[in-house]
Structures are given as C-alpha cells and as structure tokens.
Write a structure and sequence with these properties.
- The chain is mainly alpha-helical.
- It folds into two domains: 3-75, no CATH class; 134-301, no CATH class.
- It contains 14 helices and no strands.
- The chain has helices spanning 8-12, 14-24, 32-39, 50-62, 98-127, 137-153, 162-190, 192-196, 202-212, 219-227, 236-248, 251-267, 277-300, 314-334.
- Helix 5 packs antiparallel against helix 14 (314-334) and helix 12 (251-267) runs antiparallel to helix 13 (277-300).
- It is globular.
- The protein starts with 7 loop residues before the first helix and ends with a helix.
C-alpha cells in the first residue's frame, strides 16, 4: 500500500484506514499472510498479551477471518515437561485387549490430570478467575480486562480502579444473560405481544422488562428476582418465568448467584464516582471467590456433551472421555 494514495485522516484513523484497505486491497478478505506477518511485530517489537489475543480473536471472528493471532510465548504460563527418553510404549489393542486398554487409558488420564492441575495453578496465580471454563471469548475478555487493570495499577493506592469491579460486574452479568436469560427466551417470545400492548403487570415489567426489550438484566435486578422467587405470584407471566428458573436451576445454584450479585452490584460505582485501588484490593478476593462459585455451578453441571469440554476443565473433559469410551465398549459388545 502506498501512503501517498490516502488522505491524512484515512492514514491515521483506524476505522477509515480499515475501510480503505477493505475497499481497495481486501475486497476478497484479509489475507492470512498479512495477519501472520503483522503478528510478528517486526517493526514495533511489541509482544501481544493474552488480553490482546482475545481482542483479535473476537475481531477476526466478527470479520469471518480464519486466521489466528499468536500470543507472545512468554506472556502465557508454561509447564516444563521433561523430555521423554525411554522408547515409545505399546498401546494395548482396544479390540483384542479391552481390559488392558482400559487400564492404560485410566493411567494416562491420571497423568494428564496431574499436568492440567499444575497448569491451572499457574493460571490461578495470574488472575484467580476460572475463565478457562468459559468458552465465550467476550466474557473472558471482560474478566481479563479487569485483571489487567488491577495487575498494572495495584500498587497505585489512589488510582481510580472502579473499572476493575465494573469489568467483573459486566462479565458476571453476561454470564447470567448467557446461562439464565437464554432459558427464558422462549417465554419472552410467548408474552412479547402482551408486553408491547402494556398488558403485563408493573411488577413483571420491573423484574423482566429489560429481557422483554432484548436487553440484559442488571445484577441489581437479578438480586430482586432471586429474593422473590418463592413468592406465589398471581399473574401468569411471573409464575411462568419463575417456574422456568426453578425447572432449570436448583436452590443451591440460585443462592450462589444471589450472593454474588448482591456483593458485586453494591460495589459497581456510577461512572461519576471513583473507587480507590486500596478499596478494590480489599474486596477483590471475595468478588473473585463469588464469581468462581457462579462459574463452577453454571459451567460444570452439563447434562449433555454437545461439544468437547475444555481440556483445562479436566473433570468435565475426563467425564466426556469416559462417556465416549463407554459408547465404544458398548459398540464392541454388540458387534
């Protein structure tokens, strides 16, 4: 690209520069060779952080590019695994030696679990949040952004760190929208016309009105919803919405979500106020513990394996592997 062909604004405005490139050079998509070369940062020598990597994965997914941006190796926790010097072992045949294969298989699972546990401990030391269980890149980005700000300014006592808790709050809110609100969406469609005609009760509008407007429910409103879920409501809409929540989530899960929302929502400051880093340092450990509890109950209790679980969530991944092994054994038995 010749810079002389661009207006000054196009050269220094990222969006205008992208539009120029898309119209004149990338009309068939962003070349993979360009992204791979750009990611090397040969001119600036900048090293991409994990947060940067998540940013670009989201962007490339939006523009439907199959390319991947590689994160600088020293930014990712790594394990030192000793080089294997002994000869490769023989794997028992699953057809001829099914019991020996099972023993070998379980031994390898235990070995992998030990390695994953060590890796997860390294991750926990970095940010404390169990984001490895979450596949949604945008949710992970919210938590990672909060941690990045905290790690960068945690020694600046008077720094306005409200963005740390705000990112945690947005991440938790998006988790609830992803896991709870999604269960309620069939009901929002059922009562949509009644809501538009303003024939739903004020109490229903206060609790679930944002959802009916295709917006996410705030943490503060989730607190109210969770507190009142055992009240025998008279109007059909509230009864149906609460029955749907009760059908999909047990009492313990509801209590865990309620406690997390109560604690974090009270510290989510308005944009006109500030929270000192000293204050965030004090409340962050409890906030992380509560968020992790929500992640545990909402991302562990999966009844079906619609996709392969993350290897970092090894208990779930191990269950998936054993489930697949049982299917193979059943197939061999009947054949």
């Amino acid at each position: 690209m010749n810079p002389s062909h661009l207006e000054l604004q196009e050269l220094y405005d990222p969006q205008k520069l992208f539009n120029y490139l898309r119209n004149h050079h990338w009309n068939k998509g962003i070349p993979q060779e360009f992204i791979e070369e750009w990611a090397q940062m040969n001119i600036s020598h900048y090293s991409l952080t994990e947060a940067d990597q998540l940013d670009f994965e989201i962007i490339l997914n939006k523009v439907k590019s199959p390319s991947q941006v590689k994160c600088s190796p020293h930014k990712i926790p790594t394990l030192k695994i000793q080089e294997i010097t002994h000869p490769a072992e023989s794997i028992p045949s699953i057809y001829e030696e099914p019991e020996e294969f099972r023993d070998w298989f379980y031994t390898k699972l235990d070995l992998i679990e030990d390695i994953i546990d060590k890796f997860k401990n390294n991750l926990q030391q970095l940010n404390g949040l169990k984001i490895h269980k979450i596949s949604n890149l945008e949710i992970r980005k919210m938590f990672t952004s909060g941690d990045q700000i905290f790690n960068q300014f945690q020694n600046s006592a008077n720094f306005d760190a409200s963005s740390v808790i705000n990112n945690y709050s947005k991440g938790l809110e998006t988790i609830l929208n992803d896991k709870l609100s999604s269960c309620l969406r069939p009901l929002t469609e059922l009562y949509q016309s009644k809501f538009r005609r303003k024939n739903t009760s004020p109490e229903f509008n206060n609790k679930f009105g944002d959802l009916m407007k295709k917006k996410s429910i705030s943490l503060g409103k989730w607190v109210g919803i969770m507190k009142d879920w055992k009240i025998p409501y008279k109007d059909a809409e509230l009864r149906d919405f609460y029955a749907c929540i009760e059908k999909n989530f047990d009492n313990q899960t509801i209590m865990i979500i309620q406690r997390a929302c109560e604690f974090i929502s009270q510290y989510r400051e308005a944009h006109s106020k500030t929270s000192s880093m000293d204050k965030i340092v004090l409340i962050r450990p409890k906030a992380i513990g509560l968020i992790n509890s929500v992640i545990d109950v909402l991302y562990d209790n999966l009844s079906e394996y619609s996709e392969i679980p993350s290897l970092l969530d090894f208990k779930q991944f191990k269950s998936w592997l054993l489930f697949k092994l049982s299917k193979i054994e059943h197939f061999l038995d009947i054949h």
